[in-house]
Write a structure and sequence with these properties.
This protein is mostly helical and 262 residues long. The protein is built from 11 helices and no strands. The chain is elongated. The mean pLDDT is 88.
Length: 262
């Protein structure tokens, strides 16, 4: 589970609700018609903005934001270097069993293409196309939450306008103007809260996950092509280390020096 997503969203809800309760009269922030306008309207407009099959897939998308973890780039570099050593020692065909045992479908396919003797340029073309399509799928999934983040504040404003119109119809009662204005503004609060505490953060988390996954795929492509070219494992490692941030490069070196023990 991605603790940052869980903690961040929980913190936003708890602190905002806590601030309301601490300010007194928390009941003034509960308004069922306003919830219907903001949540119902935003959800409906988001469904209109996206293909139905993408909406039906939203459960998997949300699960990815909460449960997906960052790729283990250090482990990936170590795996690719071990493949390079085995290929230099026993030949590319020796990697066939390793490809079949890999949990990562993309890496398994990459190794299998090399084992099958596919032209390097064709290998790169196939894998680059897969990465591009993966990125496009993820961008399209992210758009669901981008839409929700854009539409929720707009429906909040719409709800405020509805509330103001209803309030102006009762101008003959001055005592009702204050409470009426407060109720009208609640929809703006709901819309802003839904967008900023849920939709926009989830969209950004999905974007970050996509960037991490694309980076790990690019690392695999670079490693597979280096293995196919028969490059020295040390050169393969140096090539792949550029994909790691400085802290992870240091961790990789420390693990090498300690024989893999942390």
């Amino acid at each position: 589970m991605d603790l940052a997503t869980v903690i961040g969203i929980s913190l936003a809800f708890i602190l905002v609700v806590g601030g309301i309760v601490a300010g007194g009269d928390a009941g003034a922030f509960v308004n069922f018609p306003a919830l219907l306008i903001v949540i119902g309207g935003s959800m409906g407009a988001t469904i209109i903005s996206n293909p139905l099959e993408r909406i039906l897939n939203i459960g998997k998308v949300v699960r990815r934001a909460f449960f997906a973890s960052s790729p283990d780039l250090i482990g990936l570099v170590q795996t690719m270097v071990s493949f390079a050593e085995k290929a230099r020692r026993e030949g590319l065909l020796a990697l066939e069993d390793d490809a079949a045992e890999l949990d990562d479908v993309f890496l398994g396919k990459s190794i299998q293409l090399v084992v099958d003797g596919t032209d390097p340029e064709l290998v790169k073309s196939i894998l680059d196309t897969e990465i591009g399509l993966l990125e496009e799928r993820h961008v399209q999934n992210k758009k669901i939450f981008d839409s929700l983040g854009e539409l929720a504040p707009a429906f909040g404003m719409l709800g405020t306008l509805i509330g103001l119109i209803q309030m102006l119809r009762n101008l003959e009662d001055p005592d009702a103007l204050g409470p009426g204005m407060a109720v009208a503004l609640i929809t703006t609060f709901y819309g802003s809260f839904l967008a900023n505490a849920f939709a926009i953060p989830l969209a950004r988390k999905l974007g970050a996950r996509t960037s991490e996954e694309v980076l790990s795929r690019e690392l695999m492509v670079e490693g597979v092509l280096a293995i196919q070219a028969g490059e020295n494992p040390r050169i393969v490692e140096e090539k792949l280390k550029v994909f790691l941030p400085p802290v992870q490069r240091q961790v990789l070196e420390e693990q090498k020096n300690t024989g893999g023990e942390e």
